[in-house]
Design a protein that fits this description.
285 residues, alpha/beta, 4-stranded antiparallel β-sheet, 10 helices
Length: 285
C-alpha cells in the first residue's frame, strides 16, 4: 500500500496518499428500492481495484456513481479532487468524463465509422486535438490492443472480443486518469474472453488506475491490489486480493467464492451427453 514520505510537510503528505477515487457513505435508491446502502470505497492512483459479488448487488451502480451517470441521495463521491455528487452542470460532467474512461459490457462503437475513426473522433471533437496527432495515437493504441491490422475495418466485421478491445483502445485515446470496466467479458464467447483479459492485464502492469466489475474470479485475484465484495448494496468485506480470496473473514464471502469456483465444474458436468436437436427457425441470423 502507498505510504507518505515522512520528510513531506503534513499537507503534502496527506495529498500524497489521498485516494484518486473516494466514496463515503453513499446511498442510492431507485424509487422506494434501496440499491446502495452506505458504500465506502477507496482507489489509489496506480491501483487495480475489483468489485465482486452476486448479480444485483450494486456493483455496476457503484461505477456509474463514480462518473456521475447516477446521483446518490446521500454521501460523498470524489474523483481526483472533484466532488462528483455536487456536479452542477453538463459541462462539469463532460470535464469529469474526459478524465474517466468507461468500458461497458456492450461495446457501443459507432457502426458507421471505421475502427480508426472510432478512436479519433472523441479526442478531436472533445479534447480539441489535431487530427494528425489523434490518428498517430490511435494507431499506437491499436497496436497495444493487438488490432493494428483492423484499423480500416468496421465494427460489424469484427468478433465480439475484437470489438471490446477497440472499445478499450477508444477509452485510452482520451488519455484518462482512470478506467472503469463493467463486466466487459460477460457478453463474449469463451474463446475471446482471454484476448480482452490480456489487454486489461497489460494496462494494469503499465500502472493504469482501473476499477473492474467482473465475474472472472481467477483474473481478479491475479491483477487486483484490492477487492471489494458486495451484496444487497453493502460492502460485506474488502482487503488485499490475496487475503480476500485465500482467507476471507466473512462466511458470506467464503460461500460466494466457493460457489463461483465450483460453478465451472458444475456447468461441465451438466453438459448433455447426446447432441442437441435445435429448431433453427427460432434463431435469427
Amino acid at each position: 500500500m502507498l505510504s507518505a514520505d515522512v520528510s513531506l510537510a503534513p499537507a503534502a503528505a496527506a495529498a500524497a496518499v489521498r485516494p484518486l477515487v473516494r466514496l463515503r457513505d453513499v446511498h442510492l435508491s431507485f424509487g422506494s428500492t434501496p440499491v446502495l446502502k452506505g458504500i465506502d470505497l477507496d482507489v489509489f492512483r496506480g491501483q487495480a481495484v475489483t468489485i465482486i459479488g452476486p448479480s444485483g448487488s450494486g456493483k455496476s451502480t457503484i461505477l456509474r456513481c463514480m462518473t456521475g451517470l447516477l446521483r446518490p441521495q446521500q454521501g460523498e463521491i470524489e474523483v481526483d479532487g472533484t466532488r462528483v455528487d455536487r456536479l452542477a452542470s453538463e459541462r462539469d460532467e463532460i470535464e469529469l468524463r474526459k478524465r474517466v474512461g468507461f468500458v461497458f459490457q456492450q461495446y457501443n462503437l459507432f457502426p458507421h465509422l471505421s475502427v480508426l475513426d472510432n478512436l479519433v473522433v472523441a479526442p478531436v471533437r472533445i479534447l480539441g486535438r489535431d487530427k494528425a496527432s489523434a490518428t498517430h495515437t490511435a494507431y499506437d493504441l491499436l497496436k497495444k490492443v493487438r488490432l493494428a491490422d483492423k484499423a480500416h475495418a468496421y465494427p460489424g466485421e469484427l468478433s465480439g472480443g475484437q470489438q471490446q478491445r477497440v472499445a478499450i483502445a477508444r477509452a485510452l485515446a482520451m488519455q484518462p486518469d482512470l478506467i472503469l470496466f463493467d463486466e466487459v467479458t460477460s457478453a463474449l464467447d469463451p474463446e475471446t474472453v482471454g484476448e480482452v483479459l490480456t489487454v486489461i492485464r497489460d494496462l494494469v502492469k503499465d500502472g493504469m488506475t482501473c476499477v473492474l466489475v467482473t465475474h472472472e474470479m481467477r483474473f481478479a485475484e491475479e491483477v487486483s491490489d484490492a477487492v471489494y465484495f458486495t451484496e444487497a448494496g453493502v460492502i460485506v468485506e474488502h482487503g488485499p486480493a490475496d487475503a480476500l480470496f485465500r482467507a476471507p473473514s466473512s462466511p458470506r464471502t467464503r460461500e460466494f467464492l466457493a460457489h463461483t469456483q465450483a460453478a465451472p465444474e458444475a456447468e461441465r458436468a451438466a453438459l448433455p451427453r447426446t447432441p442437441l436437436k435445435l429448431d433453427l427457425r427460432h434463431f435469427a441470423i
